[in-house]
Queue: 2 jobs
Job 1
Amino acid sequence: MSERPDGRKFDEMRDIEAKVGVIEQADGSAMFRIGKTIAIAGVYGPKKVVPKHLEDPEKAILKCYYDMYSFSVPERKRPGPDRRSIELSMVIKNALMPAIFLREYPKTQIEVFVSIIQADAGTRCAAISAAAMALADAGIAMKDIVSAVAVGHVNNEIVVDLNKEEEDIEGTSDIPMAYMPRMKKITLLQLDGKLPKEKLRSAIELGIKSCEKIYEIQKKALKGRYKLQGE
Amino acid sequence: MSELLVNEKEIVIPGEEVARGMDFLPSIGTFREGESIYAKNLGLLEVRKHVIKVIPLSGYYMPKRGDTVIGVVTNIGFSGWTIDIGAPYDVNLPVGEAVRGRLELLRTDLSRYFDIGDIIVADIYNVTKSKIIQLSMREHGLRKLKGGRIIKITPSKVPRLIGKSGSMVTMIKKYTNCEINVGQNGYIWINGPIEGQYLVEKAVDLIEKEAHLSGLTDKIKEMLEKEGVKNE
């Protein structure tokens, strides 16, 4: 049995840290760290829609902004939005939307800003996990919390939560996924690379199992936001 | 068999199953799916007999018909005013609901009644499905508040600030010699000596931070007694 580059087991995620309420000025905020990847999410709203023509009289609109900071990677990234971040903003938005009761806030917008301050693969998943907690912290009505993790196919093995080193191995396929643990629904599933059908199935199963573990961490962080008496 | 899965006064997260069975009724902050009741917001679970509620600990004010709110005039129109009540919507106060008797709109400068920046107390008398919100000042006690300023609290924490039959707010008034007027929208109008205003702000801040804990009245009392202005 071959090992993973950093000595983890195949179904072992990197160490995870979650914290809620990290930005004072935001209506809701959260930090999610998985290994060396750190995402910070801030939520603003519901508030008036600008520009006004985007307004929906029946429900709120969700706007997501994914931003990777220039110092988040070894080689300086050119700051500002680019093709990749625009696409990821859309992907994050679509992953979060099914979890929110948008119809409770007609004619409003909810803005989600996710900043990646350190990147070591799996940033979109960290972003989704952080954003879901920030939305809950903002007091927005939700059906469920969204948890996200990447699974992949590295050196002929199904593994969870790839780091950059694994991602760069020749022949690796990477499957970021987001999952709502209570509703048992997948809200994001992408596949970068090639792998056989049966392997994809077992990869998704492993992903779901890992998302449930992340959910427990998110739950603990959210409940820890408000200290109860005697704690 | 119906059962409660979470204890009362505990923090619940969105999507958490709080009760199972058809004997319970979901109220604000919760929803039913199948046999179970789930929380909608991050907040405190409250159970009154069969009715289950989740009191959110953050979030903006969502206007509700019949609420008495405090607002700031932000714009003057041809036949009314636009008021900021902390909701994500434009709120309208028509002349007819604010001024007694008839007046010639073409010949009247509405700023004679309320100018931009004025603080008012008003009732929400209608909220349509598409969130067109109208205020009314016809009822007794709804008026312009002269002087003073506004501080804010999360709307869901207003009941804690007021306390059981007004106990908390009366106590704060007594210790600070301030006039306090609390709107359901979380806007608080205060007026009085500057040291008192500072204390009110401090007390409101403490309520904002610890609204989910019990024994808050005692804590506030202790704080006010230590730093309070001598009364009379």
Job 2
Amino acid sequence: MSTLAAMPPKSAPQHGDALKAYCQISAILSVLIVALILSTLILQSGPVLSLKNSGMFSTHWNPDAGQYGMMPMVFGSVFVMIIAAIVAFPIGLMTAIYISETRSSKLRRFIKSVLELLTGIPSIVYGLIGVAYLNIWVAEAFDLQSGRIILTAGILLGIMILPTFLTLTEDAISTVPARFRENAKALGLYRHEIFKLTILPQAKSGIAGAGLLAIGRALGETMAVMLVIGSLDRLPSPLFNPLSSGQTITSKLGREVGESAFGSAHFSALVFMSLILVSITIVLTIISQYFLSRKNTYV
Amino acid sequence: MFKVVNKRHFTEKCFAFSTRFSLLICASVLLFLLGSIAIQGIGAISLEFLFTPAREFGKSGGIFYQLFGSLLIVLVAALLVLPIAFGTALFRNAYNNNLAIAKIMDQSLYALNAIPSVTYGIFGLIFFVNFLGTGISWFVGSIILAIMMLPTVTLSTHQAMLAIPKIYHENAAALGLPKKEIIRRVTLPQSFHGIVTGLLISLARAIGETAPIMFIATAFSGVKVPGSLVEPVSTLPTHILELAQQSTDPQALQNAWGASLTLVTLAAIFSGFALFLRRRLTPEGHS
């Protein structure tokens, strides 16, 4: 707490109180908003949860027949997230190592600011790039009729989370004091050994935080995924076939929320999926905050 | 390929190679992303494109009302978020002594940051559009974007307030200034840069958001300047969405690129301004 908080208000109680009241109201509002959002979602999930034969755990989504199987969407979200992590994590980690090892602080600052620029590209623009290029390249590479498949969505998402993961990982590696590096070097260790033996043990909590935050972003990403995933409400067959079209929770929400009638079981099923998604991303973020704050880095 | 001296040496070479190779991949992805947006976009953009309304469902004509709608929605959102974020940060720094409350406030802000954008859209649709009965309204879009901007602006203001050297407060208190005077003469001017940069950074993010506003605030065509708070507008992101879905039509695709470059440029202007002001406004003695 700052010193200001410790001081008792001295005079002008009327104005001081008005200012204090304004601050309290703002603070209460900003805490209540989260509660309001979550309780709204929970309340609206009611109708589908009270349905007897909603079949939420099945694989059939057909609102007209009262079937609300959410498994294809949940599976799609997880699958796409895994592909994104496979694309982004190794490249991000190795690049972060390179950047933090380089001696030129100018180059480092330049790369950092370019990465900031990249995180500023809106997801709908990534979607457009996916539709205009990636889509077609993937279709050609695998000789498919359409490139709107799980793999395309995964790669695109991997590209999207790469800057976030890269900067946070680089922060984690850079905060390891230089003397550890120097001592290890003086012992005659090679760079990969220095990284494995001295840097990684100290940076791993920061890197884990970066990874969790990145996959949290990946799970919640809507527009880009929605445009390239093909929107097919079925489990791929065979199950882990990245070349089939799919659906994630977010792409489902983006496509169908506008079409479903408010208050219907269909709408409620969508809200419930959104609630599942929010719960996962909030938990991921809180865990990642824990990891990141342990290394005194911040988002 | 490599001169193999021993196993350690070989591993070292592989390690060095893979870090360089990764950097190369990152750089080419970056060049490709920025290059494709710039090259495709410049081909589509002209003064006429920016200042004429869309025709034929966006396939021809420009993006004037989309540009207007996007700016309207985010600027009003910034006005809405400003007092609440400032009040929350001030409460946290000047009035709250309770560690538990501080923790709860931090966690709520992190949670707000973690909520996926599409969920904000659904919340807005349930709470405002249906429960409060506003219907599709640009102002509801502004409120939702303001909620999304809240964590960034609050945390940035909070950090700036934390960075004010303690001695400033102590000196002001020693002069016998009452608390509200200290806030007015020390806290506010000394943390001003945090508010402004936080606002600009969150503006840069908010202007590109599609999912939160697509159910609640926008209509695709036939929209002009709204006459009241409860009318829809068109925005750049939702416009790009519609055009991207007709991606087989080259004309639609070209306009989508033009709108994308406009959007990315606007976001870059906001964040560039934030970087510039962060340097200019940060008072001496701050980290």
